[in-house]
Amino acid sequence: MNLLPPKKYALPFLAGLLTSLAIEPFNLFPLSIVGLTLLFYSWLKAETPRAAAWMGFAFGFGLYGAGICFVYVALHDYGGMDFLLSSLVTALAAAYLALYTALAGYAQARLRVSAWMRLLVLLPALWVLAEWLRGTVFTGFPCMVTGYAQIASPLAGYAPIMGVYGVSLMVALSAGLLAYLAAHLPLSSPLSIRDRFRKREGMALAALLVLWIIGALLRNVEWTQPQGEPLKVALLQGNIPQELKFDPDKLIDTLETYRRLILQNDARLIVLPETAIPIMRDGLPENYSQMIRDHARKNAGDVLIGGFERDHGQFFNSVYTLGTAESQSYRKNHLVPFGEFVPLRPALGWLINDVLNIPMGDLARGGDHQPVLNVAGQKVAVDICYEDVFGEEIIRALPEATLLVNVTNDAWYGDSWAAIQHNQVAQMRALETGRMMLRATNTGATSVIDRDGKVLHMLPQHEEGTLTTIVQGYSGSTPYVRWGNALVLGLIAVMLGVSFAKRYK
Prior knowledge:
This protein has helices at residues 10-20, 30-45, 49-67, 70-78, 83-110, 115-134, 159-184, 193-196, 200-218, 242-245, 251-263, 286-298, 345-348, 350-355, 391-394, 418-433, 479-483, 486-501; strands at 225-237, 269-271, 302-311, 314-323, 329-331, 373-375, 378-384, 403-408, 437-441, 447-449, 455-458, 465-475. The longest helix has 28 residues, at 83-110. The protein is globular and about 75 Å long. The strands form 2 sheets. The protein has a 6-stranded mixed β-sheet with strand order 5-4-3-2-1-12. It is of the alpha/beta class.
């Protein structure tokens, strides 16, 4: 019996691997379009819906298997799993994500439409719908959405209008147009260039150019306006190794590290990373809190501290303030399954207790609608760690917020490329909202991102340091802030409706 997969699945698998190179740290954004073009072309040639589903699965397994390999580091190096179990769980996670790509492949093959309709309407709509479902079902895992790879391309101009899924739609439309040209415009054609542009192939090429030109023009639109005076900020990177972060014997060293970094800086807004102070807020010595408060008041500003809070027997991953403004806090709302809470706890609680070695692995949610933090003369919307992969949740604080702040501890992923991928996600949030994004992280990537998504400053990873710079708050609303994902989902619904209406009887 031949145990090797059919050769027809090799091309989609390699296309998925190729697409993974489009995101950080490689950042070869054209490869996402090339990879999708190869997948769409393969789907066009699929003999049955089942074959199309397997092609989609092969593509997804190549893409996510390469893209989320950092999960192994978290499970094995810091979660305490052995090699085989960590490898198996990582592979199963990639396989689960690939199911959405398989579903898109199966669905498109079931609908009998023309090649033109399939490549330019049906496939782009189903691709983005699958990405949106992946980012929504079971609390969502929207990492590696196609649009993130385009942060430096002209297509990113669509982000302030339709968000990252809208950028994904533009990528998928580009891939569909290229696949159509590859399938219907052979190089051996005797037609002249002029004759080709009189045919549908010429229309496809023109549409591709228009799509990219509009994106480039949109990148020059200023959707928001400066609010208030420029502000001096300091983002602290304590570089506390994950294996020592929750070690009680190292707590004094951790407190001393952040005491020293805080007192060395005269910035009006000082931001510490996620759980920088790895104990309950009410357990922090009062003289330590008073020292921070006094220093912040001397700077006429505030310090944002990542730590834990306890309230009515529940525990929260929080950011709380000390300084000139009244005490405020933000409590993380979108928690990581099996990392910060246990789904179906009566049945699966043993994972945290007996398999995974994750401190504070069963936290409470902070609530969907929390007030922005009024600190240092600005209104700051805080999100904690991977909350910033959910653009539709970030905009809940807008247009009131003038600055975005993300605090993160990506030390869980060691020297992998998870941290720089996470920073790319934050770039998209800045571009979608027209706000600067300030990122304070434990081991990297600590950065300041401008409202156009460009990284202005970044500290070296895995080094202690302070990023001090001047930032500007902004007011106003991008279309995405007003509509969220409604516009792109509405467009997808129309595209699917047209495809269904144009199907063969």
